[in-house]
């Protein structure tokens, strides 16, 4: 007679492990012939449960063994291992008919054919293992409870995560002891992750360093940044897509240090990578980085939970360099985000934030350069106007002085010529008058001589001759005196004119020399404030195709050719 069993579907594996077989026609499990029926008492029909177990002659029995709360007699010659373990399986099944809520820590997790196989443990705070076991979440159960758990916590079942699970112990003769999980409480996992962050936060606050890095001044500009990230991670690729543009144009330099960001010992590895990179940077003699960026792409909450480490957070708090974090997605938050100087949602936003600061500095530099250029142009124009005005005034004054000197010389020459002419005319008039007087006296004396004393004609003639000679001598002497005086006056006039011309010339030269020196001084001042000096200090002048200065980004239209003038030459560029 075949003994059929009432085996629920979820317990079929247990029944099969004890030796039960499947009858496809009856669609039921049954006890094969020669197998102890008592092993399947949990699944016997109600009509057979009260029946006595298969009897064994008392002479062949050994002392009874209690199995599942009842005694089972064993043959004297012993039982098979499967029978022994089947009894253990039945005892376990009877003791744990339903699951028990149990706190466990996942050591290892793997999936096969939809089933989830776990290695569980319980450890002391020091890391010593108190208990360990294998566990299974069958595919039909996993498809139901795991999506709900991941939606509620954002975490996935992986190494290192702590869970509150409903566990049912199972013992199978073929596979040994294991645990079947049919439920997970997400609230416990969330509370454990948050409790870990709260503990670290409290310790740092008690030590007075929780916000030490956050209080550091935000970097004014970025020239060099140390980046700590997992090697080959997607988040690093997103960051480098933005950072490589800045590095390609020599705007900012990025040095990368690689480390694991999840798994046992990841936090220690991050600390070592960070501190070693800073040590090597300082030993190279280069100025320290402007900031440290700690980045990684998104992941499950428990993947990011490895970053909630006290020693790692303390290291960041103690750094004298601002720390930028871009860990996970916008919804993710770690203790590193809380203690960092600036927290970004993603790695790409870290690079974008650095670029925004650099762009702000560039815009300020452009505005200052335009202001400086405008001021320099205004000063140069004003100096040029003053120089032109002073030069015109000096030139006009010089021309005026020369014209005045020429006019004065002309007037002096005219006066001298007029005086000399007047003196000569006066001398001529005096001589003519003397000659007339002499002739008149001579005629009178001659007439008197002829009339009164004819005998004295010879005497008178002689005397007249003497008088004529005397008159001629006097006239000659006076003419010579007049001539000498005229020459002396002319010489004095010429000397006076020449002295006046020399004075005027000297004064004009002094005025012109002073004007030239003032002009040269103004030219030097203008040259010192000109574009060449500005170019020598590292600035550049942007001109359009017509050679006109371009002073704003609006004027630099896309597609137009531009020319940038540096200190040592010019370079043609085109706007894209």
TrEMBL record:
Enzyme class: hydrolase
Descriptive protein name: Exodeoxyribonuclease VII large subunit
Keywords in alphabetical order: Cytoplasm, Exonuclease, Hydrolase, Nuclease
GO molecular function: exodeoxyribonuclease VII activity
All residue ranges annotated as the OB-fold nucleic acid binding domain in the record: 80-184
Pfam families: DUF5710, Exonuc_VII_L, tRNA_anti_2
Record-annotated Exonuclease VII large subunit C-terminal domain positions: 209-573
Transmembrane region(s): none
Protein EC: 3.1.11.6
PANTHER family: EXODEOXYRIBONUCLEASE 7 LARGE SUBUNIT (PTHR30008:SF0)
Domain DUF5710: 3-45
């Amino acid at each position: 007679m075949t003994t059929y069993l009432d085996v629920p579907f979820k317990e079929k594996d247990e029944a099969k492990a004890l030796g039960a077989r499947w009858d496809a026609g009856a669609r039921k499990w049954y006890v094969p012939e020669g197998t102890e029926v008592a092993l399947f008492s949990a699944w016997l029909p109600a009509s057979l449960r009260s029946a006595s177990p298969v009897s064994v002659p008392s002479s062949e029995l050994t002392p009874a063994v209690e199995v599942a709360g009842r005694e089972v007699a064993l043959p004297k010659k012993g039982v098979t291992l499967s029978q022994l373990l089947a009894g253990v399986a039945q005892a376990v099944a009877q003791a744990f008919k339903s699951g028990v809520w149990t706190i466990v820590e996942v050591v290892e997790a793997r999936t096969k054919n939809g089933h989830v196989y776990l290695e569980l443990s319980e450890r002391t705070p020091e890391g010593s293992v108190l208990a360990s076991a294998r566990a299974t979440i069958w595919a039909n159960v996993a498809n139901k409870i795991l999506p709900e758990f991941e939606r509620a916590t954002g975490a996935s079942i992986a190494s290192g995560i702590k869970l509150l699970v409903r566990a049912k112990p199972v013992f199978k003769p073929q596979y040994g002891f294991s645990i079947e999980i049919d439920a997970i409480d997400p609230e416990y996992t969330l509370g454990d992750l948050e409790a870990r962050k709260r503990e670290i936060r409290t310790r740092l606050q008690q030590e007075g360093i929780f916000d030490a890095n956050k209080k550091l001044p935000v970097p004014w500009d970025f020239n060099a940044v140390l980046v700590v990230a997992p090697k080959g991670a997607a988040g690093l690729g997103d960051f480098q897509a933005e950072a490589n543009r800045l590095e390609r144009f020599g705007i900012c330099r990025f040095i990368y240090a690689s480390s694991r960001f999840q798994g046992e010992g990841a936090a220690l590895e991050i600390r070592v990578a960070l501190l070693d990179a800073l040590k090597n940077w300082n030993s190279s003699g280069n100025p320290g980085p402007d900031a440290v960026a700690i980045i990684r792409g998104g992941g499950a909450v428990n993947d990011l939970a490895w970053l909630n480490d006290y020693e790692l957070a303390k290291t960041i708090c103690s750094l004298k360099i601002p720390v930028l974090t871009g860990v996970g997605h916008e919804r993710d938050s770690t203790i590193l985000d809380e203690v960092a100087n600036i927290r970004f949602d993603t790695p790409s936003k870290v690079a974008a934030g650095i670029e925004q600061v650099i762009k702000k500095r560039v815009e300020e530099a452009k505005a200052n350069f335009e202001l400086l250029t405008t001021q320099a142009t205004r000063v140069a124009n004003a100096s040029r106007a003053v120089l032109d005005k002073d030069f015109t005034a000096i030139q006009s004054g010089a021309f005026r002085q020369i014209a005045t000197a020429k006019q004065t010389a002309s007037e002096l020459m005219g006066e001298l010529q007029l005086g000399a002419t007047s003196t000569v005319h006066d001398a001529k008039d005096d001589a003519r008058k003397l000659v007339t007087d002499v002739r008149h006296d001579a005629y009178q004396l001659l007439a008197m001589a002829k009339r009164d004393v004819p005998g004295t004609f010879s005497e008178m003639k002689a005397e007249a001759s003497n008088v004529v000679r005397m008159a001629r001598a006097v006239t000659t002497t006076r003419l010579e005196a007049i001539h000498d005086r005229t020459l002396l006056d002319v010489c004095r006039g010429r000397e006076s004119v020449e002295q006046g011309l020399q004075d005027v010339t000297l004064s004009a030269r002094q005025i012109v020399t002073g004007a030239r020196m003032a002009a040269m001084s103004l030219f030097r001042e203008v040259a010192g404030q000109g574009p060449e000096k500005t170019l020598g200090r590292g600035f550049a002048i942007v001109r359009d195709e017509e050679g006109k200065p371009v002073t704003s980004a609006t004027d630099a239209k896309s597609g137009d050719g531009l020319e940038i003038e540096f200190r040592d030459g010019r370079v043609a560029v085109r706007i894209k």
